[in-house]
Amino acid sequence: MKKLLLGAAIGASFAVSVASAQSVYVKPHVRSDGTYVEGHYRTAPNQTTSDNYSTSPNYNPYTGKQGTVDPYAPPRLKSYEYKPYSPPQPFKPKAPPKPRW
Of the candidates 6, 59, 86, 101, which lies 20 to 30 Å from 21 by C-alpha distance? Predict the structure, then answer.
């Protein structure tokens, strides 16, 4: 019985340490549009999107909810990120202003 309890305690402490190692606390702040955001935990930033709390089938350990974002979906461009190509324009120097005498 003692071994079972010890194993459960070790497993629980390992799970907590793994979850906390992948989490970062975000302090409360006000966005540029005036929206107040309360402090919360999020996944630590890295080079992948497959291990975030919002990615399916991962679970958020703080809310207990399953992620809904498809990790294999192509990335979506934000409307302000799209810049159509426009060829460079030739430089046309302006004539200096005429003096007022």
Answer: 6
10 Å CB burial of residue 53 (0-12, 13-18, 19+) is: buried
pLDDT tens for the chain, 101 residues: list them.
Answer: 666 665 655 555 545 444 445 889 999 999 999 999 999 998 888 888 788 888 888 888 888 999 998 888 887 766 666 677 888 888 888 888 888 87
For the chain, domain boundaries: 12-71
Say if pTM beats, i.e. exceeds, 0.85. Answer: no
Q: Are 1 and 7 in contact (CB under 8 A)?
A: no
CA-closest candidate to residue 57, choices 42, 44, 47, 69: 69
